[in-house]
Amino acid sequence: MRRTRAGGEASHHHCVYVVLLEEGARAWAARAARNRGEGAEDDRKPCVYVGMTGLRPEVRLENHLNGVKAARVVREFGVRLLPELFEHLNPMPYEAALAMEADLAEDLRREGYCVFGGH
Asked: Taking the CA atoms of the chain, what radius of gyration do you get in angstroms?
């Protein structure tokens, strides 16, 4: 059993992460966008998945790829982590990670990425 103090540094073990997706994810995203009446993303930017976890991002990606609590898009199209987009943000407390997941996804959308996740 791990002990943590409320607000202590040990409680800062949650992370946001970004997974690069294969190009096949773009067609899936385009269908969903058309169904929602949205425009297209910048085709020069890759499709990515944004998530948050209490695990190390490498372990969480492995779980996705092995079908453990997996997002379908990552299981089917996941390639690798993009640490340059998230490492500087981690670690953080749970509530901060929850908010950061949504903020990071929105920032990447504004930059033209095709983004999945980021609830």
From this structure: 15
pLDDT tens track for 28-55: 877 766 555 555 566 789 999 999 999 9
How far is Cα 100 from Cα 52, in angstroms, rounded to an integer?
8
Query: pTM for the full model?
Result: 0.85
- Classify residue 96 by burial, with Cβ atoms within 10 Å: 0-12, 13-18, 19+: middle
Give the residues across from 49 on adjacent strands: 19, 116
pLDDT digits (tens, 9 = 90+) for 64-83: 999 999 999 999 999 999 99
Pairing of strands 114-117, 47-53: parallel
CB-CB contact of 33 with 40 (8 Å):
yes
**Contact, 104 vs 50, CB < 8 A?**
yes
Please state, in angstroms and rounded to a whole number, the distance separating the CA atoms of residues 53 and 60: 7
75 touches 67 (CB < 8 A): yes
